[in-house]
């Protein structure tokens, strides 16, 4: 074969002939093909990315948001925290729902939410409350670091780690007292009339039991303060204890329980309801309903119980799910005051970066199809709390003296009457009779007998009233007296009304859920 067969001839327009080696011709062709493919792929990728960006940026509902974000980033007179802008825009979007139960949670808020779900936190283990401008220990938790360090009910906290907390709220104080397990915190406290003293407490992991049980005058009292992980198991254990104690009547107490995990509530209902029974419905915005049924056999220990459920304006959400189910499916008796009325359910979505979105996605209805939202559950036996539960908190800086006339004066009269002092008429006028009564109170407590309610007198009145309320649970006592046959339903309702005729009873529907949660002044520390 001749050498010319290994060459390819090419003719240019001018007519010149160029001889190209065939091997290099193939290399050139392959290189051109590869380059073309790469360029095409890059072009497609760029075009695709551009299409995505254009598709997002040109959505009309986001155009203002992008314009504001870009304008601030480009023109604000100082450096901008872009992450803060994004976080606040998400917060604003959720707030735009105008739904008190939907919220976006950042890292810190998510940690608090998880504490409410698990019942675990790191701190000293004490309950505190606001009393005027003071932060008071109401109770150290049993076995807690606070109890082991000698903290007692009534101790006033005046400083934390040498930082004065004068004028602080309980929430602000709690944030300072809490801390990592194994670390120390120094509380400066005042006990009674004593001098301030420092108490060093080593923080630990604290678990808040959601269910407590006690037997009172032959009646089992099971109190549930929240629906968290493990509440159903705790509840079952307490019911079994009541059965072993031989009680026939049991009170399930949901007062001031704001709700929590729905599946825990369903499992608790299952203690009294047979398997495969519908205990509530979930309804989506299109009207489609999903039945939620029990999955296990009922607890044999509950078969012989006479069931009473105690609720009030702070009983919401999962508390109402439980109460509504037993109201529809059993002969349980509901007592107390009308519940809060939260008939919607929230779902959570993790968003990354330790943030979470909680939003309302369904309504819930009782087994009979009742939607209690905004209405609450009306008890069979209405048991309103006595007037002293509604006394206005007295500010020690204010002075109430003879001749003053306002609603707070009536609160002072109710408080002193509750503590055993004769106040005469329950009107709004600070008269000579009240001056004499205040002097008697001051004499009994070795305070200067001015007859005015201010300073130490105001503080002592509120302190003694708190102690009285803590040791006299009126609604619970009313119900136990009725169960034990001392009063009929009508008689116990009338008696409760007689003790609640001087201070206005607010409509619970005017409360927000946060109000219901805050109604109990104690805060787990």
Indicate the radius of gyration in whole angstroms: 34 Å
Share of residues in strands: 15-25%
**What's the pLDDT, averaged over the residues?**
85
Question: How far do the termini sit from each other?
Answer: 99 Å
- Give a short account of the largest sheet: 7 strands, antiparallel
**Strand tally:** 22
Structural class: alpha+beta
Shape: globular
Number of helices: 15
Poorly predicted parts: 1-20, 42-56, 509-525
Which bin fits the share of residues in helices? 25-40%
Family: Belongs to the peptidase S41A family.
Transmembrane segments: 21-44
Organism: Salinicoccus sesuvii
Biased composition (Acidic residues): 515-525
Overview of the molecule:
This protein starts with 6 loop residues before the first strand and ends with a strand. Helix content is 37%, strand content 22%. Helix 7 packs parallel to helix 8. Strand 5 and strand 6 form a beta hairpin. The strands form five sheets. Strands 5, 6, 7, 8, 9, 10 and 22 form a seven-stranded antiparallel beta sheet that branches. Strands 12-13-14-17-18-21 form a six-stranded mixed beta sheet, with helices on both faces. The protein is α+β, with helices and mostly antiparallel strands and 525 residues long.
Set out the fold topology.
Elements: E1 7-11, E2 17-21, H1 22-57, H2 60-75, H3 82-95, E3 103-105, H4 107-118, E4 120-123, E5 126-131, E6 134-140, H5 145-148, E7 156-160, E8 163-164, H6 170-177, E9 184-190, E10 197-202, E11 204-207, E12 211-216, E13 219-224, H7 231-244, E14 249-253, H8 262-269, E15 278-283, E16 289-293, E17 306-311, H9 318-329, E18 333-336, E19 344-350, E20 356-365, E21 381-382, H10 407-418, H11 432-444, H12 455-471, H13 474-483, H14 489-498, H15 513-519, E22 523-524
Parallel strand pairs: 13-14, 14-17, 17-18, 18-21
Antiparallel strand pairs: 1-2, 3-20, 4-11, 5-6, 5-22, 6-7, 7-8, 7-9, 9-10, 12-13, 15-16, 15-20, 19-20
Helix pairs in contact: 7-8, 8-9, 10-12
Biased composition (Basic and acidic residues): 499-509
Family: Belongs to the peptidase S41A family.
Subcellular location: Cell membrane
